[in-house]
Amino acid sequence: MAELTRQRGKRQEDGGLGSILDLLLANARLVLGVTGAAVLAIATLAVKRLIDRATSPRDEGDPKAEQKTLEESWQDLALIKATPKPTKKQRREDLSKPLLSPAQPPVPGEAHGPRVCSAPPETPRVESSPPRCLTLQEKLLSHYSSWLAVPEVQVSLASQLARSICAQLQNFLQSKYPELPFGSFFLSGPLLDGLGVLAADHIHLMLPVVLDAALWSLIPGEDTVVRNPQYWMIKRTDLEYFPRGRSPWDRFIVGRYLSSNVLNKTLHKVLVASINWPAIGSLLGSVIHPVVASRELKLEVKHDQVELSISLFPMVEMEDKVLLAAPPEGLVENLWLESFYRAEVSKVKELDASDSGARQRCLCILNGVCRNHPALHKLSGSPLTHVILHLSATSPDWAEESLADRFQEVLEELVGYLEKGVLPSYFNHKINLFCELLEEEIDEMGFMLYRAISEPELLLQEK
User: Fold this and answer.
1) Where does residue 246 rank: exposed (0-12), middle (13-18), buried (19+ CB within 10 A)?
2) Where do the domains of the chain lie, and which CATH numbers do they carry?
3) 206 pairs with which residues across the strands?
4) pTM
5) What angle do CA 409, 414, 420 make, to 5 degrees?
6) CA 156 to CA 134: how far, in whole Å?
7) CA–centroid distance for 370 within its chain
8) Residue whose C-alpha is closest to residue 7's, from 71, 81, 57
9) Angle at alpha carbon of residue 24, lines to 23 and 29, rounded to 5°
10) 242 within 8 A of 215, measured Cβ to Cβ
């Protein structure tokens, strides 16, 4: 009786398992496709056999039965492994078919014969040619034309906005300080001179300070407190014969010297508190606000098409020197920085005009690379220009087809200057253009450029 009950329960379990497997197989072709259904059917059959043998009574002590069971198990596993797997293409085709409900009745009159899927026509294989390796010359020219080119529309709009702000600022200062003889304000910077920018986002606004040469004289940088030949002092002379007040700029004197710091502070207060920038910005279709926390005199301009930063520099021209009110950080407040920018631009363009050279293009690429690189950004601008001017004295061939050679030579020259920690100014060899760099910065720059000598492409990767 117990044996009968056990067999009946086994049949019920087999029937339940069989119903589940039948339902699974019935839906497999719809879900997995023909190939997938075949794989599932064979695998299910093998698993079912393994379950049957696991649940069926074993003949204890019968070695032939055990051997037969073991052989059947290996055969089932071999059957599963030998089943062909569907290809990626077949799986895509199967997944693209609509899923039908298993309870959906067949369409009357529809033939239920085996479906024959016509294979899509094979696309003829096209032998792809191997990618062509670009030379450094081609990479530099491509980099210059595609990455460094600033749209003319942005340049024009930025220049127009800056000129309008320049005119508004000069009119205001003349009305507020009519006694101060400012010269005509003008714009400067790489954006206007074409010597290397990544975007139309920065312009210099120069504010000329007109001094009477009979009342003022220049003190050389070597004689100043910082002993730096690039910084000068402007001394008020003959106070015995021409007392204070004779010059309108005497109000900015500190210890008989025209203080760049005091002048900057006065102008900073004017920019922040006196000028109605919202009204001017509304007139120009933009938003203008001064940078309050900066040591520099700076305006931020936001327009629908450009965002522009304008740096203001009071400047003095005396004895063929151009001095900016840009003192170094620290307690020293009377120093004026000698600027060679105008001479740099003039000399580079003059050399290119004499031999149809590519110095300006090389400088644009180098400025773009260094400005965009976190370790090299302090090299952009004046230092690169002076390296190219030094190299022009020894390497006269600056034709466009020699751009790659000159580019690598500039890198080698830079590494050499960084190893010494000295880059002499082209216009005054007493001035070291690296004097304000930290030793760690010099080491990092030198390491990066040393690698770039053998792999210049490292510098041409967009950051």
Assistant:
1) middle
2) 152-338 (3.30.460.90), 342-459 (1.10.1410.40)
3) 186, 313
4) 0.69
5) 130
6) 34
7) 11
8) 57
9) 105
10) yes
Structure confidence by residue, pLDDT tens digits, 372-381:
788 898 998 8
CA–CA separation, 353 and 360 (whole Å): 10
**pLDDT mean by block of 10 residues, the chain; 463 residues:** 49 53 51 49 52 53 48 44 43 41 43 45 53 75 69 88 96 96 94 75 94 94 87 92 92 94 95 94 95 90 93 95 89 88 95 93 88 87 95 91 92 95 96 93 93 83 56
- For the chain, the residue count is 463
Q: How far is CA 136 from CA 76, 139, 238, 428, 460, in A?
A: 62, 5, 61, 34, 10
Q: What is the pLDDT of residues 273-295, one digit of tens each?
A: 999 999 999 999 999 999 998 78
Q: Specify the DSSP class assigned to residue 60.
A: T
Token pair for 83: 């089943």
Cα Rg of the chain (Å, integer): 41
Q: Which amino acid type is present at position 462?
A: E
